[in-house]
Amino acid sequence: MTTICHGFSVRTMPRIAESLCIFAQERIVADFNWNDLRAFLAVARTGRLTMAAARVSMDHTTVARRIAALEDGLGARLFDRSPQGYALTPHGERLMPTAEKIESLTLRAANELGESDQALIGTVRIGAPEGFGSYVLAPLMAKLADRHPGLDIQLVAISGVLSLSKREADIAVTLSAPREGRLISRKLTDYGLSLYAAPAYLNARPPIRTRADMAGHRFIGYIGDLLYAPELDYMQAPDVDIHVALQSSNLIAQLQAALAGAGLCVLPDFIAARESGLRRVLPDAVHLDRSLWLVTHADLKPLARIRAVTAMIVEAVRADRAMFTGG
User: Fold this and answer.
1) What's the whole-model pTM score?
2) 61 backbone dihedrals φ, ψ, rounded to 5°
3) What is the pLDDT of residues 246-263, one digit of tens each?
4) Less packed terminus of the chain by CB within 10 Å, N or C?
């Protein structure tokens, strides 16, 4: 008799069966349901039933029921429950790599079978820094929707980093290339940052003709202990005593403060160029260069919907290359 694993037979998916047999000590779990493992992975990655439920499009009671069913089938407790959330037990830790292998195989099967006709349907979640997300990706969403009406696009533009390994996003734009995990990255573009201020601020303060003139001026910048990437730590000027009097963890908040005349602010040129209410200060003496990287998980990269969205992101950046690099 052939054991069925939610539509995949042991004959056609031997590696899935093998993974389960290893974890269950050579005992095949009858009537194994992939959705039970989806619930397990979601809870393991979020630590919360409600967050996990949203991620897998189930209600939290269904997620809890699927976890219980998986524990019963395996004969092992997978989570310790507490008011703080769900934490993996040693059995859960052992199951995690196996579950991720099965997830990878399932995604591969979906790509080979379900997307063999290159149907562009489903959800794609993009994670990006708030500046790039708001000024580059958000305007791109209309074109994405028109070109690929079968896709649901989720844009997460935050002051932080989403984990592709934990499936918090399908595609990420990051400030550096990842150094670990089954992730595939490519440099999206270099970009410049310069010093900017509103005319209202500059007209009311002593003129800034040299770097030394910056001393005594009011700066806007990041909160030091909340920096999520070393690439954002650019308020270092050994030749000038800089005082960052106004601080925010959010780049858009810094931009709005600068537009309101609150002080001097280091901003990406591709953002400041879109704001007529800003003037560039000391363009020849203050300039920084950084890079943006486009990252996908190795399991998702072959999917047609992922390829389509990444291609449009690359296309948008290439079309506006001068805005990023000044060239």
Assistant:
1) 0.71
2) -70, -35
3) 999 999 999 999 999 999
4) N
